[in-house]
Amino acid sequence: PKLPIVGSLPFFPPDEKDMYNYLNRRREKFGEWYSFGAPGFSNDIYGTVFVMDDPNEFVKVVRGEGTHPSGIVEYLWPIKAALKECHSALVTTN
DSSP alpha helices (H): ranges in 1-94? Predict the structure, then answer.
């Protein structure tokens, strides 16, 4: 659930210390593709953030970004360069 301005913050457990386990529980509950609200992370009033946990689907997004990506993908260029250098399947084309 998301609310305007505050996103999903009211729904985060107050005692949550381990974000990895929290996100893993979200995946178990909502599946490989879901969204939540994180104010300041997007341009909409809910702060919508999309989470994709299926690596095969994520590869499609990375490959489809084109030569001039926008958004958070822009900050992935150092990672992409390192993956390209080690010939990772994430950045190779068919």
Answer: 19-30, 55-63, 77-85
Closest to 51 measured CA to CA, from 83, 22, 76, 18: 22
Q: Which two tokens stand for residue 67?
A: 């030569």
Residue 81 carries which DSSP code? H
Structure tokens at 42: 């997007």
| pTM attached to this predicted model | 0.54
Looking at residue 88, its amino acid is: S
SS3 41: coil
Residue showing tokens 């979200």? 26
Helix (H, G, I), strand (E, B), or coil: what is residue 89?
coil
- Which strand (E) or helix (H) includes residue 51? strand 48-52
**What are the Cα distances from residue 62, in Å, to 4, 44, 58, 76?**
29, 23, 6, 10
pLDDT, tens only, 8-44:
777 777 676 777 787 888 889 889 888 888 887 778 8
Comparing CA positions, the residue from 71, 11, 75 lying closest to residue 43 is 71
